[in-house]
Amino acid sequence: MDVVATLASQRAVVIFSKSTCCMSHAIKRLFYEQGVSPAIVEIDQEMYGKDIEWALARLGCSPPVPAVFVGGKFVGTANTVMTLHLNGSLKRLLKDAGALWL
User: Fold this and answer.
1) Across residues 76-87, what is the average pLDDT?
2) Residue 102: its pLDDT value, please?
3) Any idea where the Glutaredoxin domain is (predicted)?
4) Most buried of 3, 23, 43, 64 (most Cβ within 10 A)?
């Protein structure tokens, strides 16, 4: 869990992903289209990827990816992020975290 917290606090937006996951790709694309440059942690390419995946599952991520952190706080997986985007809350979160300047 400490590894996830450390990684999640390194940038305004951190996305834990798997390089082969289509939902991870969609969420990364959403952030890029918003003008955000998130840190991406591809857990299937990390030495301790299984430990990270287990820690994300313990946080309640089901499935474990994509898992999005904004301002060091867990926001949610794809469904939650898309809901926040559609209701306009995501931009506010991104602004508050310093990930967007608009």
Assistant:
1) 96
2) 65
3) 13-75
4) 43
CA angle 19, 24, 29 (to 5 degrees): 105
pTM of the model: 0.94
Q: Which residues pair with 69 in a beta bridge?
A: 14, 74
Helix (H) and strand (E) counts in the chain? 5, 4
User: Span 44-60, mean pLDDT?
Assistant: 93
First to last CA, the chain: 33
Q: Which residues contact 72 (CB under 8 A, 6 or more apart)?
A: 5, 8, 9
Distance between CA atoms of residues 76 and 21, nearest Å: 16
Closest to 67 (Cα-Cα) out of 7, 94, 2: 7
Identity of the residue numbered 21: C
DSSP E strand boundaries for 1-102: 13-17, 39-42, 67-70, 73-76
